Please model this.
Amino acid sequence: MRKSTAIPLALFLLCPSLHADEGAKDQNPLVLLPGMSPLPRTTLPASSVSMPQEVISQVTNYPNPFDSRKPGLEGETAIAYSLAQDAKVSMVLYDLLGRRVREWSFPSGDMGGRLGSNQVLWDGTNETGQKVSKGGYIAEIQVETSSTTATVIRKIGVIH
Model:
């Protein structure tokens, strides 16, 4: 029985020194498998490789959790966020079963839809003005600009 002298494929892929073309040190060894030719090198213009700017950032709410039974500002949570530009903003609060609890809508350029810091106060009431039950709630903030739409989710706790 003859012994095989084949090089294991994993070793071939990981060790460039096993390749027949020793002169191509700057090429990716995975591209140089037998029967394959190297990929052409391409460079992208600097403008096409930049990351898109975040439309909404720094989304927080405080206090979290909050006690909606307390009077005044102590019984509210401030949902804060920062916008990179004026944008149409809609915010919907859901309970953990997915039922809509409360909704706000802010046109571009108005309070809630302005460039920079924005804040919405929630006193723990639903659309009819009744206090919600203690538990977890989900805030879905959707920001629409002329070029994109971004959605952010935030968890909010109500305690009693």
Notes: The two ends are 81 Å apart (CA to CA). The helical segments are 9-14. The chain has two domains: 8-38, 56-159.
